[in-house]
């Protein structure tokens, strides 16, 4: 049997519905914040990631899916979305659009040749957003708030935002010098990669996966001690906006991020739920003011974030968040003879186009088997199409919950089902008691007294 590749996943059944639901919330929130969807290619010129993400990053040196195509071009499967978005921004001259900043979001597969483990895959799906063309600290806070609000909207509670600043180029250079000075006497105790990193890019020693437990690494100088006044003021402004937006955060001076393009604000959002294991960072991002210019575009300040959807779905499961996933169907149509089967094909088509979720029999089951199938599909209603009823322009419709049966004229079947299903859904509706008149899963407030929803009565 051919098996799937290591670090890749088949997403199907209920889990696939959860992924789809997560996508709808992402789309809805991105729309509220006025981000436009962007799709860039899954593969790009290898050089883009070498120059963009950084020659000495793990992503480029160890985890890159590189190949040469039939035309002899060096190609890489994208390990992340930012470099491709920046390439597209430059190539399509989006910087010339009077409508600045450019706010875009994406949702797609990325590839990293990592050692597969829980929360760490070789094929991963990320959603992310980028603001290109704004240096305003308010935009850093906006990106963080958007990420947090997507998590909240999905019903996650146990999340923690950690922020830090790497400062501007001068601050980063001062910090780089301090790291070289600090690590030099001890570098022989570090892995071979770190010995190379010392001169090339000492910041990457800090996120080395091999030397993570090394005490010397833990006590290394912190970025915040090397920020110049301007960078410090900027970082304070970001915090001020986060406070205004009522986003809770903590300053974590250990965050440096594993990609080279960052300066100023960097942040990560962790899942605090038990059972997650070590890969509990749901997403991360930060400011990258130099990248557009480095890749051949004009000086353009940018900030962004990305989140692994696999980890997000894992967090939702571990927190046991109830999601409004549709797992039942409205109607299952049953039949016995060929004439009834043809009518089933016709009626299914009509009802589906009228908006109902309808299924029928395709595998030759007898009526008993069809009833069982209707139960497996959690059909709200069933309908046994019987030639005699059809001749009278009628059908028998059975409410599968109450087991009550009614004979309905085919002329009014759509209206009948519509009314019945609405009543059923209304009975199921678990209204939020904060007064917002939403299903608690709709408004995301989970009755915890923190609802900021505009539909709240009196507001
Ligand atoms: P990143 O921290 O490399 O940042 O990845 C962001 C998120 O992608 C991680 O926090 C994690 O949830 C998920 N992720 C990364 N690698 C894996 C993996 N092997 N398996 C499963 N999930 C994974 C970036 O990619 C930056 N482009 C973020 C950004 C956007 N910065 C500015 N704009």
Per DSSP, what share of the residues sits in E-state strands of 2 or more residues? 15-25%
Q: Count all strands and give the number.
A: 16
What is the fourth-level CATH superfamily of the largest domain? Bira Bifunctional Protein, Domain 2
- How are strands sequenced across the largest beta sheet? 1-5-6-11-10-9-7-8
Assign the CATH class of the largest domain: Alpha Beta
What's the helical proportion of residues?
Answer: 25-40%
In the CATH hierarchy, the third-tier topology of the largest domain is known as BirA Bifunctional Protein, domain 2
Q: What is the mean pLDDT?
A: 93
Number of domains: 3
- Rg (C-alpha, Å): 27 Å
Largest sheet: 8 strands, mixed
- Detail the poorly predicted runs: none
Q: Do you know the CATH architecture of the largest domain? A: 2-Layer Sandwich
What ligand molecules are bound, each kind once?
histidyl-adenosine monophosphate
């Amino acid at each position: 049997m051919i098996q799937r590749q290591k670090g890749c996943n088949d997403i199907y059944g209920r889990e696939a519905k959860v992924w789809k639901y997560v996508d709808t919330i992402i789309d809805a929130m991105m729309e509220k914040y006025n981000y436009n969807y962007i799709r860039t290619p899954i593969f790009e010129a290898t050089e883009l990631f070498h120059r963009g993400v950084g020659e000495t990053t793990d992503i480029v040196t160890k985890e890159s899916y590189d190949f040469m195509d039939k035309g002899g071009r060096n190609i890489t499967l994208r390990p992340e979305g930012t470099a491709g978005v920046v390439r597209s921004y430059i190539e399509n001259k989006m910087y010339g659009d009077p409508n600045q900043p450019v706010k875009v979001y994406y949702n797609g597969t990325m590839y990293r040749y990592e050692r597969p483990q829980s929360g760490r895959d070789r094929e991963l799906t990320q959603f992310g957003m980028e603001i290109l063309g704004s240096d305003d600290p308010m935009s850093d806070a906006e990106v963080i708030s958007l990420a947090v609000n997507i998590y909240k909207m999905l019903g996650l509670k146990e999340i923690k935002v950690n922020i830090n600043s790497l400062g501007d180029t001068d601050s980063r250079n001062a910090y780089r010098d301090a790291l070289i000075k600090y690590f030099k006497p001890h570098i022989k105790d570090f892995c071979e990669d770190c010995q190379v990193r010392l001169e090339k890019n000492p910041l990457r020693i800090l996120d080395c996966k091999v030397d993570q437990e090394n005490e010397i690494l833990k006590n290394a100088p912190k970025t915040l001690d090397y920020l110049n006044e301007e960078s410090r003021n900027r970082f304070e402004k970001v915090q001020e906006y986060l406070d205004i937006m009522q986003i809770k955060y903590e300053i974590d001076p250990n965050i440096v991020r594993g990609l080279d393009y960052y300066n100023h604000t960097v942040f990560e959002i962790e899942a605090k739920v038990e059972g997650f294991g070590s890969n509990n960072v749901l997403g991360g991002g930060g400011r990258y003011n130099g990248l557009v210019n480095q890749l051949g575009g004009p000086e353009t300040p940018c900030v962004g974030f990305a989140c692994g959807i696999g980890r997000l779905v894992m967090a939702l499961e571990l927190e046991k968040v109830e999601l409004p996933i549709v797992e039942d169907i409205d109607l299952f149509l049953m039949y016995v003879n060929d004439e009834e089967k043809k009518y089933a094909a016709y009626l299914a088509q009509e009802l589906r186009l009228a908006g109902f979720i309808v299924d029928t029999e395709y595998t030759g089951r007898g009526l008993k088997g069809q009833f069982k199938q209707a139960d497996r599909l959690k059909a709200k209603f069933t309908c046994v199409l019987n030639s005699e009823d059809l001749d009278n322009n009628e059908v028998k419709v059975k409410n599968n919950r109450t087991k009550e049966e009614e004979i309905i004229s085919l002329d009014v079947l759509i209206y009948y089902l519509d009314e019945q299903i609405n009543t059923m859904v209304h009975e199921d509706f678990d209204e939020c008691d904060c007064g917002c008149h939403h299903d608690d899963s709709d408004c995301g407030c989970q009755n915890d007294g923190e609802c900021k929803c505009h539909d709240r009565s009196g507001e």
